[in-house]
């Protein structure tokens, strides 16, 4: 196999060790993401493996064949292009029956290069202008070239490193990509040994094989939602923690479901379905954007909407307690949904199935969501301290008399001289 680049930097996942050992990268782990211009967040993150797997001859030149696949699904390996290097410091890519310049490590400051833009940007043309603005030398003698990508679609600096390639990925010389999609090199390897990890804090937090799409189901076994319940029926006052969890499996008509509070659910891409009353019902769709609609059992009650549709009014993201960024979707006639958490409604994670109706015996308050005993979302700091890991935890408190009545169609509760609505908010 022809070696494509020059000397590289040895590293591990925990430390960086500089050396001038004459080896070359032959695998690149590249993070692909969608950039949300409204929130400045990265979404739909997936790591793809780009790997050299053998040689091929095209015309009179010998190339190294490159394949790629999602890091979690190596069985989906596909051929993407071929690469070769020359003695004068250039690297070329053969893609779609044509050869393009990929890098020129002998370029000088102010040189303008026309380099390959990447396989996913061909609608804009196969090449793009790069202006070399700075050249430096790393401690081990390798060149580092900073180039400015020029054009209407993007104009910014990016970096090429001898032995590694672009900081956006080996066949993405510039990190500007078509539309809202972008790329970032996480790690590079030589024969399965890590020789480079990014030092960009925006991407280094994802490690080498992060996948928000393939690796992380929204509601896996072990996820628990905790709610603080106050019962005011029968002349008493009792509070306890009600927990809903995902556990076990059930097969219906040949389809395997997990059980969320004994309701069969399954995931398909960004959607979550519940099997209820003899049919499947879509309860979550985390791929929605502003203006999209989804069925909401609560919509008819709010606005006489016969189709019971809720419309997305805002989309942004939040940081979960485990460090992940999660999409947050807000609606007009439905409680807010958060990826990996579900509905933040006090009516429970299955509110999109049952509606926002609450029991009339007392207030319910959503506390937190946890996974395998570790909090990932809290409605207030420390609210997951109620999460005992059991299905139901009861704590008896001193009884108080309470009365209920209806005013303007709203159920109100009087307790100790104070008036509350059904979700426990003092009126």
Topology overview:
Blueprint: E1 10-11, E2 16-17, E3 27-36, E4 41-58, E5 61-70, E6 78-85, E7 90-95, E8 98-104, E9 112-116, E10 127-137, E11 143-150, E12 156-161, E13 165-166, E14 181-190, E15 193-197, H1 201-204, E16 223-231, E17 238-252, E18 255-260, E19 263-268, E20 271-276, E21 279-285, E22 293-295, H2 299-303, E23 309-319, E24 325-331, E25 337-338, E26 342-343, H3 351-354, E27 364-371, E28 374-378, E29 392-395, E30 402-407, E31 410-415, E32 418-421
Antiparallel strand pairs: 1-2, 3-4, 3-14, 4-5, 5-6, 6-7, 7-8, 9-10, 10-11, 11-12, 12-13, 14-15, 16-17, 16-27, 17-18, 17-29, 18-19, 19-20, 20-21, 22-23, 23-24, 24-25, 25-26, 27-28, 30-31, 31-32
Describe the structure.
By secondary structure, this protein is mainly beta. The protein folds into two domains: 195 residues, no CATH class; 199 residues, no CATH class. Helices cover 3% and strands 51% of the residues. It contains three helices and 32 strands. A hairpin with a 2-residue loop joins β14 and β15. The chain starts with 9 loop residues before the first strand and ends in a 6-residue tail after the last strand.
Shape: elongated
What about the largest sheet?
9 strands, antiparallel
Unreliable stretches: 1-23, 387-416
Q: What is the mean pLDDT? A: 76
SS summary, helix count: 3
Give the class from helix and strand content and strand pairing. mainly beta
Strand segment tally = 32
- Helicity, in percent? under 10%
Domain unit count: 2
The fraction of residues in strands falls at over 45%
Radius of gyration: 28 Å
Distance between the termini: 75 Å
